[in-house]
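Side project, low priority. Logging it here so it doesn't get lost.
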Amino acid sequence: RLTRDIRAAGGAGAVLFAIIDEWFKKNWVVIDFEQPLERNRLWLNPLDAEQNYGVLAMRAGHRDSAIVIDGQRSDWGERGRTWPARSVPAGLPAPLGIEDVRIRSDEAYVYLRLDVGAIDWRAGRYLIGIDTHRPDLGARRLPRTGQRCEVGFEFAVDLAGPDSSQVLIDQPYNLYRTVPLPGSNPPRFMQVYNRPWESKSHDEPLWETLIVETNRARVGRDGTVYPAITYPRNRLRHARQPDHSLADWYGDPATNTIEIRLPWGMLHVLDPSSRLVLRGMDSGGGPAGVTTDGFRIVVQSYDPTSLGAGTLLGCGGATGDAFHYQWPTWEEPTWHQETKPLFEAMRGAFGTIPDRPAATRAATRSPR
């Protein structure tokens, strides 16, 4: 529409921005948590709008090994770290059974796959506790069920059905906290950085929403207070690829398979190519990172009517029972190219515009 408006106004031409996705770009919403900046070209951050403006997509990983979020197992093959064989408690209803758990990653996402006995959200739901660094730190109780584990978690994925699944974060490790806006009457609130971003060991139910500030609070010249605008990053979109490119997860009742993809940035990974995760502040008060030895995963099914636990994997008497995933580091990314739907839309629009601009009043107006 804008291209047609430029032509109708007598413009000599227009520039399309951008042709390709640019992994090296930076956006203020996430730039503080893409560290070190000189390495952000090595990975794609789906949370960074600046990196995803192209009409030609630069997707992470190899085309022939990409995971598609569609509830099918064929694209996994033998790839992906598989949970060691565990016995499933006898007598459980099928939706509470967990047969297999797999994990993979590429330059953009962490992928999780749960093979369950049956998908029935009225009878069975699933929790995934994720420890991103140091198993002695973090929340030791899962949300919903309150299940205590020896490993501490910074994040928990609550799969509660197509409309209410989300990622929760342990309060001390959240990026933002809410404080009163100075001088506001009646009181208004704003988001500030939750320094020092340090995971702490505890048994308290401190699970919170992942809040992101997209518009900072400000005060107008006339004294009007404009509060910050925030949105919850933690909601997971249930959709099927390739029908929906923004799919976060999908559960297929035909295969009883659940697939999830989480951007590295959502898990506070500053640089997946070097396994650098958020941990504390630097001398200037900005975020600092520490190299992790990988993630530790615990999975639990539960009955949503009673919150009774079903299958529990990885939460034994020692932190070593948790599923440990250590991905390889890299110095050169793998990627493949795809055209986005907008590409064909722009091709059609350009095809209707002649080589010369239309005569308009703007083009024929006498000079002043």
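Brief comment: The mean pLDDT is 89.
Revisit when time allows.
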